[in-house]
Amino acid sequence: METESEPYVRLATLRQLHQAVAELNVARSLADTLQAVADGVVGGLGYELACVNVVQADGDLVVAAFSGSAAAEALITGRVGSRGSWDRRLSMGECWGELRFIPHTEGWVLLEDDVPQWYTEGPDPRFEDEWHPQDRLYAPMYARAAASDGVKELLGVISVDRPRGGRRPGPWGQEALQMYASQAAIAISNARLRANMQRALVRLEREQQALRASEESFRQAFEYAPSGMAVAEMGGDQHGRLLRTNDALCRLLGRPASAMRRYSFSDLVHPEDIGTLLRTSAEGGRAELRLARRDGTYIWVSLRNSVVADTTDGPRFLLTHVEDIEERKSRELQLAHRASHDSLTGLPNSAELRSRLSSRLCSRPHALRETAVEALDAAYGGYDGTVLYEPGYDAYEGYEGYDGYEEQAGLRGGVRGALGPGSGGAAGGGGFDHHVHMVAPTGDGETDDGTKGLAVLFCDLDGFKSINDRFGHNTGDAVLIEVARRLTTGVRDGDTVARLGGDEFVVLADGLGAADAADLAVRLRNAIIPPIRVDGRAVRVGASFGISWAACGMSVEEVLQSADQRMYVEKRSRKTVHRRAG
Questions:
Q1: Are 69 and 148 in contact (CB under 8 A)?
Q2: Which of 87, 480, 501, 511 is most buried, judged by most C-beta within 10 A?
Q3: What integer pLDDT is reported at residue 146 of this predicted model?
Q4: What is the C-alpha to C-alpha distance for residues 52 and 35, in angstroms, rounded to an integer?
Q5: 72-86, 421-435, 486-500: which has the minimum mean pLDDT?
Q6: What are phi and psi of 64, to 5 degrees?
Q7: Percentage of residues in the chain with pLDDT exceeding 70?
Q8: What is the pLDDT of residue 406?
Q9: In this predicted model, what pLDDT tens digit does every residue of 128-180 receive, in sequence order?
Q10: Is the pLDDT of residue 48 over 60?
Q11: Which long-range contacts (CB under 8 A, 24 or more apart) does 19-28 make?
């Protein structure tokens, strides 16, 4: 740079400074920008040595670039000076605008601090403004101040040494260095911004790559999962609408993907399972329910929902996993059916009969009686020994297998002891508000007071033992199966036909009056009488029926015992009639 003694500054000097500033803006990285700052001080401003100290995240300053001496560069590059030491230096000496000049006469106090520095040798100055080897000149670099507070942020400090002319910089040199430091601060800020943007772009690209990889993994896991998968909309008018289904779910339901998008799970679920589906959709979790196939059949599935949340809008989608459990459910239903049904006839067994009967009874009678005997009498309308007997009923004489009445009246083995002490009404002692009390009609079958109740018909086969003894158990089993079929055919939908065991059956028929129950017993007896063909032979059995009525306040045991006893009364009566006829 030209000496300050000249009355003007050459155009070449300005060009050098302009070139140095231009170099600041073409650097490709922050490190290149810092080195360009140091090189510009030496090449454009005419100093022999230049050092760029940059503020770190912890506030201390590190030597980030050096120019002018390879030995000095190797000595101090990368070394750190504390912020406190730098603040003290920037508060000493002479203020040349924003520059700080510390003459050698004051600099001795800085020899022991931790700011990295180099030492130059040379003769003592001969003139007043001649540069001394121990003189120090610093150019702070500040970021642009925010308009609100006006506080400037220190980005770094440029340290210079030994101007080429050998003299301290005059007004032009001071102004040039200060201007250059300002431009260097802008260049460093821009370089940092670019570096941050590049890092952000790299991070964003990595995140996008990870997201694409995750989406591809999800797509493959979704599409090629061995069990059904679906994405459904959550909330709004289209809640539950299927947005996407995989091939396994389409195969499971027999529907193409294009058709599946027209449905929601509520459109496909079995009507009895809609409540389960709505609870699962609202709360997430797992449920077992039935979904409709294209052919109109239903298949049991395990449906598991997971809520896919959006960070801004909240929950938006349901990810649904659908697993085929038809085989397992069938086994469970078969096991449950076996536990509650007779293995030979397929009718409800004794336990199921008692369960159904108990569910209709509570422990509080419709009209409280003083004693259990009075309650029974009230329930049955006062039994007077009338026998359910059809006057035109013919005897069983001449039918193969009929051996007359051989059993003694009394409580049958199929009933005795089968009920525990807790077999009373299912409603227990409370909860009557929603319970419809069972009331026994009055009348003997020929008269009817109009009351409808739950009739319990106890059926015992006549002549079955001789068939078993004469033709074997296979024939006996075939007879029982046919009797069960005839009984089931002879009752209404909703009535229960159960097998207690052996040759004993029970029919539960609700909504009947006394005359209705008597008519039903006659129809069922007449349905059983016709011959049954087994292995080319015809065998016949008769049937005795006893009718009782289920009434609240009675236990299941009391109801069945009463029907059983009435059946024996009829059987004894028929035996007497047969003897008289003989």
A1: no
A2: 480
A3: 54
A4: 8
A5: 421-435
A6: -100, -20
A7: 80
A8: 35
A9: 888 888 889 999 999 876 555 667 889 999 999 988 888 889 888 899 899 99
A10: yes
A11: 19/43, 19/44, 20/44, 20/45, 20/180, 21/180, 21/183, 24/183, 24/184, 24/186, 24/187, 25/187, 25/190, 27/187, 27/191
The crossing angle, in degrees rounded to 10, of helices 464-471 and 473-490 is 150
Give the C-alpha separation, 333 to 329, whole Å.
6
Q: Which two tokens stand for residue 63?
A: 């030597």
Amino acid at 442: T
- Would you say residue 337 has pLDDT above 60? yes
| Contact by Cβ (8 Å): 167, 129 | yes
- Global pTM? 0.47
Q: Which of 377-386, 392-401, 447-456, 485-494 has the highest mean pLDDT?
A: 485-494
pLDDT band at residue 235 under the 50/70/90 scheme: confident
Helix intervals (H) in 270-387:
274-283, 326-340, 350-359, 372-380
Query: 317 forms bridges with which residues in the sheet?
Result: 233, 308
575: left (phi over 0), alpha (psi -120 to 50) or beta: alpha
Beta bridge partners of 538: 533
Residue 280 in tokens: 């699962």
* Residues 6 or more apart whose Cβ sits within 8 Å of residue 301: 228, 252, 288, 289, 290, 291, 322, 323, 324, 325, 326
CB neighbour class for 113 (10 Å; exposed up to 12, middle 13-18, buried from 19): middle
Which pLDDT value is given to residue 148? 55
Residue 106 contacts residue 89 (beta carbons within 8 Å): no
Query: Alpha-carbon distance 207 to 213, whole Å?
Result: 10
Q: How far apart are the first and last CA of the chain?
A: 153
Angle CA 184–187–188, to nearest 5 = 85
Neighbours of 188 (CB within 10 A): 25
Structure tokens at 281: 């959709």
- Domains in the chain with CATH codes: 11-196 (3.30.450.40), 224-330 (3.30.450.20), 343-581 (3.30.70.270)
> What is the Cα–Cα distance from 535 to 533, expressed in whole angstroms?
7
**Cβ atoms of residues 245 and 257 within 8 Å:** yes
Q: Are 456 and 440 in contact (CB under 8 A)?
A: no
Q: How far is CA 228 from the centre of its chain?
A: 15
Q: Please list the residues that pair with 459 across neighbouring strands.
A: 505, 545
* Residue 250 CB partners (closer than 8 Å, separation 6+): 256, 257, 260
Give the number of other Cβ atoms within 10 Å of residue 404's Cβ.
Answer: 14
Average pLDDT, the chain: 80
